[in-house]
Design goal:
The protein is rod-shaped. The protein contains 1 helix and no strands. The protein is mainly α. The mean pLDDT is 83. It is 83% helix and 0% strand.
């Protein structure tokens, strides 16, 4: 039986470096992805902290005005 489009198998001593190379490339891609996600998470946390601080400052400025209206 002939299988068209079947790639010939590489000898193990030749294929080993390709397998190792593929693992190294995959690991590098995963590390870059994790680094990008860590940077984005850090930036998002910093922005949330800034927003919380801004909200607290606005509430602090608005409360005396609200007390003047009531009193």
């Amino acid at each position: 039986m002939i299988v068209p489009f079947a790639a010939p198998a590489l000898p193990l001593h030749t294929a080993g470096k390709y397998v190792a190379g593929a693992y190294i490339v995959f690991l590098a891609i995963v590390l870059v992805y994790v680094a990008i996600m860590a940077a984005r998470l850090s930036r998002t946390e910093r922005e949330l902290t800034d927003l919380r601080q801004e909200i607290l400052e606005r509430r602090g400025r608005e409360e005396p005005r609200a007390m003047e209206r009531v009193g």
